[in-house]
Amino acid sequence: VKSIAVLTSGGDSQGMNAAVRAVVRSALYHGLEVFAVQRGYQGLINDDIRPMDLRSVGDIIQRGGTILQTARCKEFLTPEGQQKGADNLRKRGIDGLVVIGGDGSYQGANKLSKLGIRTMGLPGTIDNDIPFTDFTIGFDTAVSIVVDAINKLRDTMTSHERSSVVEVMGRHCGDIALYAGLASGAEAILVPEVELDVHDVADRMSDNFRHGKRHSIILVAEGAGTGEDIAAQITARNGIEPRVTVLGHIQRGGAPTHNDRILASRLGDFAVRKLIEGDSGKALGLVNNELVATDINTVVNTKKPFNMNLYDLAMRLSQ
Ligand code: F6P
């Protein structure tokens, strides 16, 4: 390849900017021409593509969001949309594309690679729902935000001897709830991957209060129910009225942690090197601290396994 482009797609995540910076700077270092596509696949269809230089990615490694902006683009799900995108790249002589995004973005990259564009996918999502990588870019920051929020909630819950239900993001994947729950000593963690009877959670809560516990934190991934709903079920069972906090999009903003910046930098550089080698149709990740490239087709057709060991540990330690 002589010329590549980079885009961010789907829900944004902290560290996307660090990944864009790494792709651009690594491409320039290796003597490639590099372009940015604005607003994800929508920009690809609309031909919103501009050349990048060293300075276009200055002062962004520490910023949340994505300077390239992002979109969830329905038109790109159609063969016509995909063809238009591929044509817009080709007419500029761009033969490689790095897509930074989640599952939906990988599906698009897969299609483009079948149309002959060399593609590399980088896992950019707070959800940590992409298989063949231990972590996705943004997950570490999102978990830190949740843990920080729970620290604050705990102060006031303890003063009042109250219970808190905290709803976090994750429609299909409970990793944010799991990691934040383990890191903050949550009493129960409700995730889409594990069946849990809310009555048991409520009974345990009243037992714990009877035995001297002064606060209780219940974490709910949005895919396992709404915070309001879970709190209502708890009240109906044990009469305790938990306060509900929905952290929402706060989890997707703010400066990325050093872990996310380093992950993004390593994967962005790896993507460029894989394209230079002539590889295509790969989703990149870090497994046991090793950079790995997996067929994007395999990645989009595999569900990330849930870490039951961590879940059991969290439950054992939160008596
Ligand atoms: O995929 C990332 C994510 O933040 C999910 O955790 C959440 O369910 C969804 O995006 C929210 O989407 P939107 O920003 O479109 O409301």
UniProtKB/TrEMBL annotation:
SUPFAM superfamilies: Phosphofructokinase (SSF53784). The active site is at residue 127. Mg(2+) binds at residue 103. Pathway: Carbohydrate degradation; glycolysis; D-glyceraldehyde 3-phosphate and glycerone phosphate from D-glucose: step 3/4. Residues 4-273 form the Phosphofructokinase domain. GO terms for cellular component: 6-phosphofructokinase complex. ADP binds at residues 21-25, 154, 185-187, 213-215. It comes from the Bacteria. Its cofactor is Mg(2+). The keyword DNA damage does not apply. It catalyses: beta-D-fructose 6-phosphate + ATP = beta-D-fructose 1,6-bisphosphate + ADP + H(+). GO terms for biological process: canonical glycolysis; fructose 1,6-bisphosphate metabolic process; fructose 6-phosphate metabolic process. It is found in: Cytoplasm. Its EC number is 2.7.1.11. Pfam families: PFK (PF00365). Keywords: Allosteric enzyme, ATP-binding, Cytoplasm, Glycolysis, Kinase, Magnesium, Metal-binding, Nucleotide-binding, Transferase. Substrate binds at residues 125-127, 162, 169-171, 222, 243, 249-252. Allosterically activated by ADP and other diphosphonucleosides, and allosterically inhibited by phosphoenolpyruvate. InterPro entries: ATP_PFK, ATP_PFK_prok-type, PFKA_ATP_prok, Phosphofructokinase_CS, Phosphofructokinase_dom, PKF_sf. The keyword rRNA-binding does not apply. ATP binds at residues 11, 72-73, 102-105. Catalyzes the phosphorylation of D-fructose 6-phosphate to fructose 1,6-bisphosphate by ATP, the first committing step of glycolysis. Belongs to the phosphofructokinase type A (PFKA) family. ATP-dependent PFK group I subfamily. Prokaryotic clade 'B1' sub-subfamily. Homotetramer. NCBIfam families: PFKA_ATP, PRK03202.1. This is ATP-dependent 6-phosphofructokinase. It comes from Paenibacillus swuensis. The gene is pfkA.
